[in-house]
Amino acid sequence: MSNRLPAEDPLIRMQRDLKRALAKKPSDIKWGMVIDIARCIGCHACTVACVAENKLPPGVVYRVVVEQEIGQYPHVTRRFIPRPCVQCQKPPCVRVCPVTATYKNEQGVVVMNYDRCIGCRYCMGACPYTARCSDFGDWYTSDTPEMPGKVVGRAATAKGYEARPATEYGQDWPERGHGSPVGNARKCHFCLHRLAVGMLPACVTSCVGRATIFGDRTDKESLVFEMIGSPRVTRWKEELGTQPAVYYLA
Amino acid sequence: MNENTFRILLGVGGVGLLAGTLGMGVRLIFGHVHMAYGSYVPWGLWVAFDLLFLGLTAGAYIIIVLTYGFGLKQFEPLVPLSVFSLLVSLLCEGIIISLDLGHPLRVYRFLVTPSFSSMLTWLVVFILAMWLIFIPFLYLLLREKFVLWSRDPERKGRDIYRALAMGRTEYSDADRERDRKWLRILALISIPVGFIFFAVPSAMFTDMLGRPHWDSAILPILYMFASYLSGCALITLLACVYHPQEPVIGFLSRLLRGFLLLFLLIEFIQIFFGYRTDNPGAVAALNLITNGPNAWVFWVIHLLLGSIVPLYLLTARPHDARSVAWAGFLIVITFVAVRYNAVVPELMSYNLEGRDLFFVQRRLSQAYTPNLYEWLVSLWVVSLWVVVFLLGTRWLPVIPAEKGGEQHAS
In this prediction, does ipTM exceed 0.95? Predict the structure, then answer.
């Protein structure tokens, strides 16, 4: 990690890169992410931002931060490895899905068709990064006491937040508990609904250490392209041949 | 089977259905909320039962291979019973795996938007093929009796048999010859279809990346022999109950012993070489099976009750129908332990350091123990198998009545 202060906040540059990418033909964009482990402080802000952005229910999480303890006392350190869906370019989850409910879109992002998914959970076992979750229909408010007619209580609390669906994939989903995505497999989609309106993914904007870099990995002027060229770059479980579009700077 | 045994078994099935209703109610009303599986162990007890039911269909396959493939006519009286057991097993398999789906009403998607790169699609294709082969097969086997029963004025449900006979009142020698020809064609088609069918579930598991316990060329062989063993055990049990003729029982008991020994050999190879690889992922899964908190499932349920005791019975008393029946029964009821260990330990032991510490939540846990509701749903489906099968033997001409002295509905 450089000791120099950055001349420009990477977020500003990524925002500029994003604007340039969105001006291209959509099929020419290939989204990519680089995570600099040396910059990650393990604050889990990205996890929380992702949960809030996508209104994820209990037990569903798209981006976790793996915490590892290395060495032996007194030479001990911890490292933090954020793990979104690594958006394999040869995705094993797509190959095993029996009803083509999950597929790689033209921009290289593995997405879900919630209305097609039968909820067999085969993709969960097949993902070597355990990056998929099933929405079993759990509620944060399930243990909240009901108080009919009040502004508090289970129903009112739920309506205030978790019953309202997120606009994942840019669609209006029914109120929670009325069909998909309950019963579906769910996964990180690089916040495609935010990208569509010119916003970076929630995990990127919330990263206080600026450890997460995002952009069009085919754009040679972009920060993400520059980072992929680093000698520190590596990919998770490269030996499996899944060709992730999420890179790590070790 | 005498009337008292029939009533007792039917009562046991009825009680099982009644008890299982609680689990079914919870599943149908609340979905998956109260079930124990999660995103890291996405398949649990119901998938184990699904594989069990799929394997039980191998019993009919074995009888058909013996009868139509090898021309062993002494097994012909068992054909309708075994094919009926196959259809009941497929029915229960369909029910339990539908309950496991997040959106069971979307199963039509398999036909509308199939992905042929998925082994699950191929499993569904072969399950459909089994239905398409064996429904007409059973019908052709029973058509003559339907015609006869529809003409019997004393018989209860005569109108149903008339409908099943499709208005036919006579069954000539030419009809018999034509039906036999079609039966032979369907039987010959079923032999290669069945051969692949019993290996396809293993392909689902070998297709998962980075799972060393499953990533093995021996897995398809293991799955095939697991199906042959459990299916042969079921059909041996049924033969002892409904067709206790010496040549049949003697042959089936020897066949069952052979399948049991072969399966144990293949299982030993899987475990021995799994440990020899020293691959941490494979060793972790094997440790869970042989040395984990649920190791008793492997040692006591599978090896002692499901292998050693039946092996003793089949070796010491191979011609005693009662002992052979007990051996078959023990193998069938303990086989869910084999299927459970084939699915769950690998999912629980997946090697990604600190996986269940990423985000602490019960759905994101590597631990899995089937809860009461999962057991109750399984009980309901197993009880359904028992009840449908027993009622079928009473209301359909599937058992060699003149041999076992059964009373058909009359």
Answer: no
Q: What is the pTM of this model?
A: 0.93
Site from B348, B358, B364 to mutate, A interface, most A CB atoms within 10 angstroms: B358
User: If you count them, how many residues does chain A have?
Assistant: 250
CB-nearest to A183 from B31, B209, B363 is: B31
B358, A64: Cβ pair inside 8 Å? yes
Q: What is the CATH number of the domain that holds B99?
A: 1.20.1630.10
- One of 3.30.479.10, 3.30.110.70, 3.30.70.20, 3.40.50.1860 is the CATH number of A10-249, namely 3.30.70.20
Q: How far apart are CA A63 and CA A49, in angstroms?
A: 9
Q: Which residues in chain B have Cβ-Cβ distances shorter than 8 Å to A118?
A: 101-104, 106-107, 109-110
How many structural domains does chain B have? Answer: 1
Give me the tens of pLDDT residue by residue for chain B, a chain 410 residues long.
Answer: 788 899 999 999 999 999 999 999 999 999 999 999 999 999 999 999 999 999 999 999 999 999 988 888 889 999 999 999 999 999 999 999 999 999 999 999 999 999 999 999 999 999 999 999 999 999 999 999 999 888 888 888 888 888 888 888 888 899 899 999 999 999 999 999 999 999 999 999 999 988 889 988 899 999 999 999 999 999 999 999 998 888 899 999 999 999 999 999 999 999 999 999 998 889 999 999 999 999 999 999 999 999 999 999 999 999 899 999 999 999 999 999 999 999 999 999 876 666 667 778 889 888 899 999 999 999 999 999 999 999 999 999 998 764 444 555 54
